[in-house]
Amino acid sequence: MADNGSARLAAGAVTFVTANEDRDHDTGINISVKTPDGVEVASISVPFGVFKDGTTAGPYPLDVLTETTKDGLSNGTATITIHPNGDDTWRFDMRLRLRFTDNTHLSVSAENIELNDDRNTTQISLGGPPN
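-> structure tokens emitted (131 positions)
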């Protein structure tokens, strides 16, 4: 199927693979997917429970908040923020998958992320326009 840059965002999901430093049960997580001009188009924000060392959690569905197209997300970002209750360090890989109305997907992975109470946010690029 030919790429359709005008296909609309239909759904999204995020999966976490915890490395050797787990996430405490009371540390909240926010994921926010934004267009290059800062419009939030999808998100999830829940506590999730503990993520133990060496485990995979998810996929967790994102809420689609604002209509956008595949082209509209080109060069967009995904921001991951944790909200520790006290001290917490979490080391993980993240996989984000966005599905569009033409049944194509945009998949982004980030490895070796470390977030803690001092550095609680990281941003990941969704990449440039499709070829």
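The beta strands are 9-18, 28-34, 40-46, 56-61, 63-64, 77-83, 89-100, 105-116, 121-125.
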